[in-house]
Each structure stands twice: as structure tokens, then as C-alpha cells.
């Protein structure tokens, strides 16, 4: 359960820092609170082959998905024809 949620989250954002994932796991973002060691185990190469671990000085800095979600930008126009905002649509 946690593994699929973590993999999906990283796939959408492409690359996610370790601290961001740590905070989300500890605060119940993925349905309930989990230990950080559980997150690290679920993101190991043996369990999640599509996730790369980014290391710096022997510490985990971030996780990256090998095939991240691709996005297309679209402009939202106002009735006057001006660009109100730009949104991203998954391909």
C-alpha cells in the first residue's frame, strides 16, 4: 500500500527530496503515519525498481523516478483573450 503510493507520488513529481517524503510519511499524508525506516525499505531498488536513490556524501538526498509523468502546458484564456494562468495536463 505505502509502496504504491510512494511510487505514484514520485512518478508525478519526477524527483522528490528525502526531507519532503520524510515529512509526508511522518504526518500521515499517505493515509496514516509511517516510520521513516518503512519508507526507506519500500523505496529500495529491490522493492521499487523504477525509483533511483540520489546519494550525496553517503546520505540519501532525494528519490527520482526513471520514467516520470510527462506534462503538457495549456494556457487558460480570459474572455478578453489574455492569459489568466498556465496549467499542466498529464499526457
How would you explain this protein's 3D organization?
By secondary structure, the protein is of the alpha+beta class. The chain has one domain. It is 31% helix and 34% strand. The chain contains three helices and five strands; from the N terminus they run αβααββββ. The chain has a three-stranded antiparallel sheet. The longest helix has 12 residues. It is elongated. The model has no long low-confidence stretch (mean pLDDT 92).
Care to give the gist of this entry?
The chain has 91 residues and is an alpha+beta fold.
What distinguishing features does this structure have?
91 residues; alpha+beta; three-stranded antiparallel sheet
Gross geometry: elongated
Q: First CA to last CA: what distance?
A: 25 Å
| Category from helices, strands and their pairing | alpha+beta
Radius of gyration, whole Å: 17 Å
Mean pLDDT: 92
The SSE string, one letter per element, is HEHHEEEE
Report the major sheet. 3 strands, antiparallel
Amino acid at each position: 500500500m505505502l509502496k504504491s503510493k510512494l511510487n505514484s507520488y514520485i512518478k508525478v513529481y519526477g524527483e522528490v527530496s528525502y526531507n519532503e517524503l520524510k515529512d509526508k510519511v511522518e504526518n500521515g499524508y499517505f493515509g496514516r503515519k509511517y516510520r521513516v525506516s518503512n519508507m526507506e525499505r519500500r523505496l529500495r531498488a529491490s522493492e521499487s525498481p523504477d525509483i533511483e536513490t540520489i546519494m550525496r556524501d553517503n546520505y540519501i538526498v532525494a528519490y527520482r523516478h526513471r520514467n516520470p509523468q510527462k506534462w503538457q502546458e495549456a494556457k487558460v484564456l480570459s474572455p478578453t483573450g489574455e492569459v489568466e494562468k498556465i496549467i499542466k495536463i498529464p499526457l
